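Weekly modeling sync, notes
Attendees: AB, CL, MP (scribe)

Item 1: holo prediction request
CL wants a bound-state model with adenosine-5'-[phenylalaninyl-phosphate] before deciding which constructs to order. AB pointed out that an apo prediction alone won't tell us much about the pocket. Agreed to run with the ligand included and paste results into these notes for async review.

Input as submitted:
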Amino acid sequence: MSLSEFTAQLDALLEAGTLAFRQAADGEALEEARVEFLGAKNGRLKAAQKGLGTVDRDDKPAAGKRFNEVKQALEAAFDEAKSQGGAAADPRAIDTTLPGIRPATGGLHPITQTIEALKDIMGRLGFTVADGPEVEDERHNFEALNIPLEHPARDPKDNFYLSHDGVVSQLLLRSQTSTVQIRVMDSTPPPVRIISLGRVYRPDEVDETHYPMFHQMEGLMIDTHVTMADLKTVLRMFATSYLGEDVHIRFRPSFFPFTEPSVEADFYWNGSWMEFGGAGMVDPNVLRAVGYDPAEVSGFAFGLGVERLCMRRHNITDIRNLYRGDVRFLAQFA
Ligand code: FA5
C-alpha cells in the first residue's frame, strides 16, 4: 500500500469515528461506537494498523507517525463525547435522588409589585389605567390645576425644571400625577373613572419617608352626583383591600388648589399616623379649565404615595431601603 493510500484510509477512519462518537445518543451507543472504532481486538483502528506492514519501507516512519496521531485524535474524540453527551444522557449516570440546583432567577421590584396590586384593586372598583409623561409643561402640572404663577408650589427651588444651555425652560419633571387628570379630561368627555400610576420628582430632603423620586397613584372620578361620601368610601375600600381589614385610616381637612373641600388621608402604623395621600372634590375651576360644566358634573380626585403604601404593607420602616439596590433586601420580595 502506498503512503497516500494508507493516510487516506486513516483520515476516513478518523472522520467516521469522530462522527459516530458525537452522534451517540446515550452511553450504550457510545460504548458500541468505541468497540467498533477503538476495540483492541476487532476495532477498525486495529484493522487499519495491519496496513502499516504493507507500506514501503522508506515511508514507514511517516505512516507510523500518522497512525499515532489518528489514534490519539480518535481517543480524544471519544473522551470528549463521553464527558458531554453520551455518558451524561445515560439515565444510569444521573442520581435522581440528589437535591436539584435551583436556578437563580430575578424578581420584580417591590414597588413594581405594589403598582400591580394597586391596579388590580382599583380595577375591581371599575377604574381603568391612564398614562402621562414624566416631563411636563406648566399647564398640566400647575395652571389647569388652579395653581397660579405666584403660587409658592411653582418656585423653581421646589421643582426640577429642565434647562438648556443654562436657560431654565418651561418644562419640568412632574411633581405630582395630578397632571394626568388634566390630560384625561382634556381628551375625554365625562364620565371618567381612571387611575394613573407613575414616578414624580421633588427636591425634598431625604429621610425615612421622603425621597426625591417616588411614585403616586392618582385617581379621578367624574360623573353626575359624585360626592365626598363616594370619595371616602372608595379610599376606605382601597385601604382595607391593600392593607387589611384591621387598618385604621383617618381623614384630615386640608388644602389643595385643585380640590375643594380637600382632605389628607393617614394610616396608623407603629404608634403614629402616617400621611399616605391627598384628596378632595375637584375644584370647579379645574372642571372649567378642561371644558367641563361644573353645573352638570362633579367628581373627586386623590393622589396617594405608592412607597408609603408598600412600606406599611411590608413593614419597611425606611423608604431608602427601596432604592439602595441591595439584593439582600430586595430578595425578600422575589
Ligand atoms: C399631592 O401631590 C396631590 N397631587 C395629591 C392630590 C391629588 C390631592 C388629587 C387632591 C387631589 P402631596 O404633596 O400631599 O399631594 O403628596 C401626596 C402623597 O405623596 C403624600 O401623602 C405622600 O404619601 C407622598 N409623598 C409626598 N412627598 C413624598 C416624598 N418626597 N417621598 C415619598 N412620598 C412622598
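Recorded for review: The two ends are 70 Å apart (CA to CA).
Action items: CL to compare against the apo run; MP to circulate these notes.
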